[in-house]
Amino acid sequence: MRRTHHPAGEIHRLLVDSDVLKTNRLGDPTLRIVDVYVPHGHDGAGLPLLVDLVGYTAGGPAHTAWKNFGENVPERLDRLIGEGKMPPVVVAFPDCFTRLGGNQYVDSPVMGNWESFLIAEMLPAVETRFSCGGTGRRGVFGKSSGGFGALVHAMRHPDIWSAAASHSGDAGFEHLYLPEFPNTLRALAKFDHSIENWMTAFEGKQKLDGKDTMVLMILAQAASFDPDPDPETFLGLRLPVTTDTCEIIKERWAHWLEWDPAEMVKTHADAIAGLKAFYLECGTEDQYNILYGTRRIHRTLEHKGIAHRYEEFPDNHSGVDYRMDESLPYLAQALTR
Fold first, then answer.
1. Contact of 77 with 39, CB cutoff 8 Å
2. What single string gives the DSSP state of each residue in 57-112?
3. Total domains present in the chain
């Protein structure tokens, strides 16, 4: 049932057949769903466009589906717009789910060219269909891996995006990922340290658990940040640690760190300075230690005198969609000006 009395916007479902994803090594489909929210009383024409990048293990349509004990994102938008807390916007929800359980929204020969998909294929499809967005009127937001995507896109493509919001976006990789490598190695050791054997067993399971998901997440990051160029390597997957002693392989780990937003911001802060709005937040109880990398981003921006909105809130990494009540009006107002 709906949890707001305000008139409901309309959800349109587009299908985008991607050319840039055809080279992915995972065998993932290139025909992608993009759900698009258009607010009540509008056809989309002339409105700003926001793009929702979902977190790991989800796909865009998960945010438009019915949700128990709470609002899905379209219902949240209906309420915020209906109460006058934010101007009307179009919101796109692209399905970027992969065989490895999710996405970091960057180009990768293993995962696929998702950065290019979003910019070169998804955006034109939505903007052409609904006559929305355009230069100076596009924003990107997300949580967790989606927050990482929003951070990276804001820093790498300020010519495309004019506003961005990161909710607990992956940052501070030494605190976020390093603690997971021993657990990953223990899981792989049960399969002769073979990623291929582990994946075969994983994909044959009828029931998954949280430990499986964390191992898969590490493999997804490896595919995104440091794919093995050797075509003989199973799905191009390799780890930045030794399998027997879990020691860091410096040149591989360096590739990961090149994508750490807490490091990227040191050289890409000027891109953020050019945005109309940049929103950054993390819960003080974040169980993946993302708070510390987020604080580093905030500190770097402060030291450089770059305007942004930064917030910490007393919660962890899970179930924090309610924080969109802060970020979405902020982005929409900036893009409407």
1. yes
2. T--GGGGTS--TTS--HHHHHHHHHHTTSS---EEEEE----TTS---SSEETTTE
3. 2
Q: Is 121 helix (H, G, I), strand (E, B) or coil?
A: helix
Distance CA 202, CA 41 (A): 47
Cα separation, 161 vs 224, whole angstroms: 21
Structure tokens at 333: 């107002």
The reply to whether 33 and 155 lie within a common domain is yes
Same domain, residue pair 25 and 126: yes
User: Is residue 75 helix, strand or coil?
Assistant: helix
- Residues 40-71 pLDDT 10s: 999 999 999 999 999 999 999 999 999 999 99
Which residue from 201, 194, 337, 172 is spatially nearest to 261, judged by alpha carbons?
Answer: 172
Which of the 8 DSSP states describes residue 83? T
282: CB partners within 8 A, 6+ apart: 167, 168, 169, 290, 291, 294, 295, 312
Residue 236 gets the label, from left (phi > 0), alpha (psi -120 to 50) or beta, of left
What Å distances lie between residue 198 and 21, 177, 189, 249, CA to CA?
A: 25, 19, 9, 22
Q: Residue 2: pLDDT band by 50, 70, 90 thresholds?
A: low
Asked whether residue 93 falls in the same domain as residue 225, the answer is no
- Across residues 160-186, what is the average pLDDT? 98
Strand pairing report for 90-94 and 112-113: unpaired
Cite the DSSP H helix spans in 238-289. Answer: 250-257, 261-273
Both 232 and 297 in one domain: the answer is no
| Same-domain pairing of 161 and 194 | no
DSSP state of 248: B
